[in-house]
Amino acid sequence: MNTPLSRQLVSDPDAPMIVASAEVAAGAVVGARTRIWHQAQVDADVRLGADCVLGKGVHISSAAVIGDKVKIQNGCGVYGAVLEDGVLLAPGVRLLEDPAPRSVTPDGHLKGRDDWRREPVTVRYGATIGANAVIVPGVTVGRFAMVAVGTVVGHDVPDHGLVMGNPARQVGWACQCGHRLDDILTCPSCGRRYLRRPHGLSAAP
Ligand SMILES: [Zn+2]
């Protein structure tokens, strides 16, 4: 259960661990046992679930909602995204929010906090986003999808989809365990089998 930081007791064994150099704004909600490392920055309107890990220099803002057991590794930028439980963002991932970004308005004024269009990214349960990948605004990355290192994702990724490149293209399917499936949708590593569904794959019963 999430508790505002101000109400947490230091002696609570389930209290989050936040190092001194991290900046977690008052009002941010941080779940039990979540660890926030050096120079990470969490805005006041962000909600973090339980048992998450935020690496060095992670930035999370714009009302992002993060589930439980989510790992966000060094240097990631998460702008307004929704991350379901069990998501992994490898180092340097960017989840973008504004599909038409400008620094100034058409009449030349500096844009303020309310001048951004919000089309946040959604990353569904168990998905992995590889290092330095960029996900453009409004995209949904499906359950247990695997986005390769450096990919630029401009379209939705199906459940268990394996995508790579710029622009991203689907090159196969990924198992729940992280390995690539063979041609008959079976995992050579763990033996799990999958069936085609309208939204991608799901594990065979
Ligand atoms: Zn497997």
Describe the structure.
- There is one protein chain.
- The protein is an all-beta fold.
- It has a single domain, classed as Hexapeptide repeat proteins (UDP N-Acetylglucosamine Acyltransferase, domain 1, 3 Solenoid), CATH 2.160.10.
- 0% of the residues lie in helices and 30% in strands.
- It contains no helices and 25 strands.
- It has strands spanning 3-4, 17-18, 23-24, 29-30, 35-36, 41-42, 47-48, 53-54, 59-61, 65-66, 71-72, 77-79, 82-83, 88-89, 94-95, 122-123, 128-129, 134-135, 140-141, 146-147, 152-153, 161-164, 169-173, 194-197, 200-203.
- Strands 2-5-8-11-14-17-20-22-23 form a nine-stranded mixed beta sheet, with no helix packed on it. Strands 1-4-7-10-13-16-19 form a seven-stranded mixed beta sheet, with no helix packed on it.
- A hairpin with a 2-residue loop joins strand 24 and strand 25.
- The radius of gyration is 18 Å and the shape is globular.
- It starts with a strand and ends with a strand.
- The model has no long low-confidence stretch (mean pLDDT 95).
- Zinc ion binds at residues 175, 177, 179, 187, 189-190, 192.
